[in-house]
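Students often ask why inverse folding is considered easier than folding. One informal answer: many sequences map to the same fold, so there is more than one right answer. In these notes we will look at a single instance of the problem. The structure comes first.
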């Protein structure tokens, strides 16, 4: 005889799609390992330098020049890779949260179904759309149906209950949408500061080469210091720029999803108020 599982357990087994990478620290560690491998085996390949000691890159060789940026380079590479990986992760997560099809069209169709008091059609649209938006609207529609069968509460209490369901369902979904955005925002400042640190260290090496020279300055040491400064500056700017663009882009996408949820939730509350006398 087949045992019936509680609805709560069945709900937990339903796949909600890709929700995001929960451990940003693990991403940073993996990116650091990859950055070290790139620094040592790609940038630091002997063919990029004039001799095996890697003292001077081959003229015009960009990889060797980047390698001479010093120990700050793999740190900056780690930050840049982390921004890129988390940006791709957020892109997939937000696409999943948005669901299938146009979000604007979905909102319009649900509002039209609610205006006609056709909850079944609204639910079918949610099942088709899926994602966080469909999940929130489905939860609110269930509360709507529950209030229709409730004869104990007043109309005002029912409307408040539906509105509360909208807020609670939205609050459950928002953390998954904003996951890892704080890390990307941190990279905006951190990348620039680490790049500035590398620039300062490179300039210190350059001035040290000038200070210790008894006659003509050591051109190798001087060029190494300048290369380190410029390479780290470039990586720092690139990391900060990518982080700013990524953060602002995904924040705007989340705002659109949140606005769509609020708009549908408001329509459901208004639909109940218009179609029910108590």
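Output (designed amino acids):
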């Amino acid at each position: 005889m087949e045992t019936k599982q509680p609805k709560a357990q069945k709900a937990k087994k339903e796949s909600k799609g890709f929700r995001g990478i929960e451990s940003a620290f693990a991403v940073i560690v993996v990116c650091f390992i990859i950055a070290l491998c790139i620094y040592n085996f790609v940038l630091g390949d002997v063919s990029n330098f004039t001799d095996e000691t890697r003292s001077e890159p081959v003229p015009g060789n960009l990889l060797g020049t980047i390698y001479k940026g010093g120990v700050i380079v793999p740190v900056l590479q780690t930050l840049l890779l982390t921004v890129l990986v988390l940006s791709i992760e957020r892109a997939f997560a937000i696409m999943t949260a948005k669901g299938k099809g146009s979000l604007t069209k979905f909102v319009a169709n649900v509002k039209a179904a609610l205006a006609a008091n056709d909850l079944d059609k609204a639910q079918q649209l949610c099942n088709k759309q899926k994602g966080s938006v469909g999940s929130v609207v489905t939860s609110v529609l269930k509360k709507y149906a529950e209030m229709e069968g409730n004869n104990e509460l007043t109309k005002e209490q029912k409307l408040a209950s539906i509105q509360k369901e909208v807020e609670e369902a939205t609050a459950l979904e928002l953390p998954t949408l904003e996951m890892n955005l704080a890390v990307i925002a941190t990279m905006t400042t951190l990348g620039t500061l680490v790049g500035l640190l590398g620039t300062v260290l490179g300039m210190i090496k350059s001035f040290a080469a000038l200070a210790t020279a008894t006659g003509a300055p050591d051109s190798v040491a001087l060029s190494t210091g300048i290369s380190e400064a410029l390479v780290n500056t470039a990586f720092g700017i690139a990391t900060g720029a990518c982080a700013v663009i990524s953060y602002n882009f995904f924040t705007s996408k989340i705002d659109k999803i949140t606005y769509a949820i609020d708009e549908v939730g408001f329509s459901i509350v208004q639909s109940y108020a218009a179609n029910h006398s108590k």
